[in-house]
Amino acid sequence: MPIKPFLTICFLLFLSHAKADVTIASTTSTQNSGLYDYLIPILEKEIGESIKVVAVGTGQALKLGENGDADLLIVHAPKKEIEFVSAGHGVDRRPFMYNEFFIVGPSENPAGLAVGQDVKTAFAAIEAAGQAGELTFASRGDDSGTHFREMMIWDAAAIAPQGDWYLQTGSGMGATLNIAAGKNAHTLTDSSTWLNFANKQNLVKLFAGNPILFNQYSVIRIPKEKYPHVNDDKAKQIADWLVSETGQSAINAYHIKGEQAFTANASDAAAAEAAEEAANASEASN
């Protein structure tokens, strides 16, 4: 890991343990969407303790959990989450809400992308236009859930992106969107961060509507048996609230500019898993 991001994470962890009773390691998309500004005050009243969110990529959040540096995880890379729990680093993984991914890019749409287009056609068009010098693609490049899904899509299209047109930002979702806006570039974003993003400039939604773009979020507790110092009582209280009828209603009530940002789905875990299986099947079939 580069030194600067590592030091930043260390500093955030220091603040979380110094000032908070519960630490949540989380994906940046839930932070960038404004969801935590809305939910954390509600949760703090619910549990009677302060909460600190360390917003990093899902890969880094899972690593913090593996090291016992968080009490609870909110992440969105199901394959990695299942591996994480199977390895004994986490317990009680519960899917609780979703949104979607899509590609944004310049309104001129040099690759000719369309909503509902199949993945192979869309990403082959992006690569061809990139190689021709007609577009730039800004990748998170940070082992986040969004980056993991992006690479899953490139794999589905049987493409290994490389070249000057393919820019890896190593940054969170909001920062990557700012870079894409500044360079008039394409990028993969989650829908909620996009709704809350103010600096769109010439960027518009270009490619969406494929099962592989389904974006499931889950909550995972860190096992007290492995890390006795974790605040598991309060972590469980938060997890229970997120999947409760009250918590699910609160998630559905969060809107950005009149649009619902996330859809709660804890009450239908089977449907959540089926949607993720459909995403994986889409990857395999393309």
Automatic annotation (TrEMBL):
Q: Which domain of life is it from?
A: Bacteria
Protein source organism: Ostreibacterium oceani
Q: Does the keyword Signal apply?
A: yes
Which keywords label this protein? Signal
The secretion signal range is 1-20
Please report the name of this protein according to its UniProt entry: PBP domain-containing protein
Q: Which InterPro entries match?
A: ABC-Tungstate_binding (IPR052738), PBP_domain (IPR024370)
PANTHER family associated with the record: EXTRACELLULAR TUNGSTATE BINDING PROTEIN
Among the Pfam families in the record, one is PBP_like_2
Keyword Nucleotidyltransferase recorded: no
Q: Where is the PBP domain?
A: 23-245
